Amino acid sequence: MHIHILGICGTFMGSLAILARELGHTVTGSDENVYPPMSTQLENAGIELHEGYSREALKPAPDQVVVGNALGRGNPAVEYVLNRNLPYVSGPEWLAREVLGNRWVLAAAGTHGKTTTASMMLWILDQAGFDPGYLIGGVPNDFEHSARLGSSDFFVIEADEYDSAFFDKRSKFIHYRPRTLILNNLEFDHADIFDSIEDIEKQFHHLVRTVPATGLIVRPARDRHLDLALARGCWTPIQTTSVGGESDLSAWRAELMESDGSDFMVIHNNQPVARLRWNLTGHHNVRNALAAIAASKHVGVTPDHAIAALQRFGGVKRRMELLTDVGGIRLYDDFAHHPTAIATTLDGLREQVGDDNVIAVVEPRSNTMRQGFHGDRLLEATQLADRVIWVDYDAQEWLRNMLAQAGPNHSSHSVMEELVMDVCRDLPRPCHIVLMSNGGMGGLREQLVKQLETCFG
């Protein structure tokens, strides 16, 4: 079968392409943003790419068109598909129908931590010899690709609440029908498709409706919006997680041995299981680990084996990924799309480095931030940084208004050269610089690595 994917270079759609190719299909695709690393991964898999959305890429007509959720009416390729009555489907529906089928799906959902938690589950099952299939919305450092079919009944997936397609406004995760479900947290995000937190709670409730009574839901003990979503109805056993003294009633608890989360004891049903010492920091990663351990136990991996696997966990690209360490200056790359994600990352780093100087370079790029939502929370989210430099390529008015209320340790720039100069200005040592964005930052990462290694190497 010939499958053509519209929007193929997005992380989700590119991963679908890899799976379709593994199934033996002829796969081609179109996108406006055809560039590495996804383009390289796809070309290496023998997938032909077309830049732009020309109708010529759909000639001769493919057997099926998979439409990414970034495309809508008015797109020339979409209009051609509709006018020619070509068979089309959303990415999540294709995945559910062609890959997930009768497999045991382990899903990680939530506003934050989906990629990392799913990668932890994947690594635990892989190290236990399960050979799970997977689709992750990022690139786990322990694996070559962001997706594979696997040979077992198990499939690990990052379950996104974003909509499925222009013709299917349900959240992607509604299609996945997990048997083991992690609900990390629930906050307002994606203001381009959701009008309120209640809208998101409803989608999470719809997801909960798909989990069988023989399944399992793992969630933190404290999350008000998850409480509200689950109060709409739940027919599946729930296990809760907690860190420190949050709750003595949780099935899974972490007793911190180090305040930065790099060392903790895992406690299950009030019984110590094993101690986890690893390279990750932050209480959010401790929560992610507890959830992954609980979910893995549901499919038969003992907690001590799960903990042993996590001690070797390599993390995920763009989750506090160290880009360079030169002359006492460490530069990290972090995928930050929400004030809570920014705050928890900086909190974890501060716990780790103590009084060392921390510089946060933040690009408020998500659709929600660009509409001015969360503006009142961003200053608070960055308060643990000694300096905050805002990337403002589009000269956003809401950002200028917010910075008018900020202190002298905040600055913003719309020109790349000015950004690089400001970041590198009067750097104390030791120093930790964190780049925080859910996008490419216009090449700022590469420029900073080059500048730091030139000046301090």
What can you tell me about this protein's structure?
There is one protein chain. This protein has 457 residues and is α/β, with parallel strands linked by helices. The protein folds into 3 domains: 90 residues, 3-Layer(aba) Sandwich (Rossmann fold), CATH 3.40.50.720; 209 residues, Mur-like, catalytic domain (UDP-N-acetylmuramoyl-L-alanine:D-glutamate ligase); 136 residues, Mur ligase, C-terminal domain (Protein-Tyrosine Phosphatase, Chain A). 33% of the residues lie in helices and 24% in strands. The strands form 4 sheets. A 10-stranded mixed beta sheet has the order 8-7-9-6-12-13-14-15-16-17, sandwiched between helices. Strands 18-19-23-20-21-22 form a 6-stranded mixed beta sheet, with helices on both faces. Helix 6 links the parallel strand 12 and strand 13. The longest helix has 16 residues. The protein is globular and about 60 Å long.
Most strands sheet: 10 strands, mixed
Q: Kindly name the structural category.
A: alpha/beta
Shape label: globular
CATH topology of the largest domain: UDP-N-acetylmuramoyl-L-alanine:D-glutamate ligase
Which strand order do you get reading across the main beta sheet? 8-7-9-6-12-13-14-15-16-17
Provide the gyration radius in Å: 22 Å
How much helix is in the residues? 25-40%
The CATH architecture name of the largest domain reads 3-Layer(aba) Sandwich
Mean pLDDT: 90
The beta-strand count equals 23
Our estimate of the beta-strand percent is 15-25%
CATH-assigned homologous superfamily of the largest domain = Mur-like, catalytic domain
